[in-house]
Predict the structure.
Amino acid sequence: MWSFQLCCHLALFLAGIILHICTDTVKGLNVCVSGSATSCEECLLLHPSCAWCSQENFGRGRPFMSQCDLSQNLLNRGCKARYIENPRSTSSILKNKPLSSKGSLSAQYDIIQIQPQKISLSLRPGHQTSFEVQVRPVEDYPVDLYYLMDLSLSMKDDLDTIRNLGTKLAEEMKKLTSNFRLGFGTFVDKNLSPFSYTAPKYKENPCNGYKPFPNCVPSFGFRNHLSLTDKVDRFNEEVQKQVVSRNRDAPEGGFDAILQAAVCKERIGWRKEAYHLLVFATDDVPHLALDGKLAGLVQPNDGQCHLNEENEYSASTKMDYPSLALLGEKLAENNIFLIFAVTKRHYVLYKNFTALIPGTTVEILDQSSKNIIQLIVAAYNNIRSKVELSVWDQPEDLSLAFTATCQDGKPLSGLSKCAELKIGDTVSFNISAAAHSCPSPGTKKSFTIKPVGFKDSLEISVDYQCDCNCTRFSQANSNHCTNAGTYTCGTCNCDLGYHGTNCECSEDEVGSLNLAACREAKGKQVCSGRGECSCNYCRCYESEFGKIYGMYCECDDFSCARHKGILCSVPSILKCVLVRECMVQKNPGFRDCIECLLFNTGKFADNHTCQRMCKDKIIVTETLVCAASIDAMTVLLAVVGSILLVGIVLLAMWKLVITIHDRREFARFQSARSRARYEMASNPLYKHPISTHSVETTFQMYSKSYNGGVH
Ligand SMILES: *[C@@H]1O[C@H](CO)[C@@H](O)[C@H](O)[C@H]1NC(C)=O
Ligand SMILES: *[C@@H]1O[C@H](CO)[C@@H](O)[C@H](O)[C@H]1NC(C)=O
Ligand SMILES: *[C@@H]1O[C@H](CO)[C@@H](O)[C@H](O)[C@H]1NC(C)=O
Ligand SMILES: *[C@@H]1O[C@H](CO)[C@@H](O)[C@H](O)[C@H]1NC(C)=O
Ligand SMILES: [Ca+2]
């Protein structure tokens, strides 16, 4: 009977612990409170949902109550709404001109393809805001097309094919735009060994002695023959004049030429209000950055325009080839769509380049450029049917998420582009922005969002909501802070040498002595490491698990489990709670002290005199004997006893089972043995030593045939 009762207690005890854990995790405090922020700014940084109450005296009682909490909790705890600091991220539109629908017909400089044009974001770190951007590629937008051609020897037949390209291309492009300009440039390679022939006999004519084609021009980096013009016949004239060149290695210096064509915007004549198409026709692979080292060119490409009076790339033999990254950057900066028109053999390589350089496409060029017009028209249509947003100068601590809504009206999250558009379709992008950190106060940043290849862009300026409004009303030497500190956002920042909630203690008075007043004993942590020593008493922190209290924050209501108010744990933790029960019963005169000291309730707590009134009395409480409650030893013995008992019962059961099992086994063994004895006579392993075989004696001697076969 005794053990049965203990068992029940034990079960209840365990259930209690489990219940305790469950309810506590549900009730757990939020990140704002447990973050123990000491200023409004710190609080705002903890989490976007945290708010700060700057109301005077809010949360300055005992125990320590956080001024940083979810704004709903602050309201519930009595903070007035106007004292709650909780900035939100916002976006506001500063410039919002409507989209244009037609390009060439409207006034030249007012074509708008993105809306809005200017936005300002005000971001609270961690809290995101969103804005919408609409893009509509206008109909009949002007087009600038620059034809950049490889003039190495293998392109001789191509040169013949494009002699009348200008006229034909203009005819085709007229169907697409009423405003078309064409330009023309060529390239070979750097005129340096080992890329080109530099021996004296090749100086004037690198084809010297080359039977199939004995006359050609020396190689060169890049030449601009015809800046962009609407007089397309001039294109034909320039092409007629060209003579191919010859150089030594297979890769050509085309990327030098692309870079120059992109960055020399005045010389090439790119218009601001036009699509910029750069057609790059070649039949070989390009040289890339660092190849120049073969010829001793150690200076990296500077990405600047170096066209001289003769319209020739003058730094060709001074600088290395450009890198893909530089090329991509310069093309994007100048809104240039690059179209690689390359032979089938090198299609894959250039296809790979398009993945690395945004805004480029690749098309297969016939052996002698016969399909060049279809190719250009196809590439142009391909470009026109796409809208892709690119972000420029994105601040590092800012993250952007895009959701595209293309022509079918379905939002596609994570996508910043739309394809297969028809002219005049409008697409919209929902962009959410969130900051991750607070830069130094007053920092403003800005960045740009731009559809690839468009001159239109959206400018976005960003400022940060990291400050609290209440900080502006800080008072130095405030009388809220005993004239010894700055009163800011409802708290006191004490001057050097002062502390306490209201800076009411000065260093001289306090010294090490008063810190000692916050220690339970010498060598122990101040306020048991669970509170802060303010003047000469502990303000205990709030904990996620429950209440921390006591003179030195040494007590709590979660370190031990209870059943019906009876503690079930080791004596040192029993102390606090047992004391409460006993004191109230036996010594009602101390009730107020007990209430205020341990639980911060009652009248002394209300007028903050607890510390003074009850200073000596707590010592008495610790020596009191608790007769009413169960002795800790009994609980311990009960627990140990029941554990032992359960162990013994289990052991006994085990023993019983084993014994029964053994008996059965033994019986089986016995019966098997007796059976074995009985069957010994026919042991299957036993073989009688004598065996008898009978031989057929009447075999026929002559039935054996001659060749040994048996019939
Ligand atoms: C801070 O003050 C500004 C103007 O003084 C006001 O617009 C803004 O709403 C205030 N912010 C908060 C969080 O109270
Ligand atoms: C953008 O998308 C978010 C959800 O991802 C939505 O809350 C917000 O209202 C949208 N903004 C606009 C301007 O459509
Ligand atoms: C192109 O890229 C693919 C995949 O990355 C690679 O397997 C292939 O070798 C590349 N081709 C060339 C010619 O670089
Ligand atoms: C605080 O309140 C208690 C009980 O009402 C009273 O006895 C005590 O004098 C008060 N102390 C002060 C400083 O007002
Ligand atoms: Ca070459």
Notes: The first helix runs from residue 2 to 27. The longest strand covers residues 427-435.
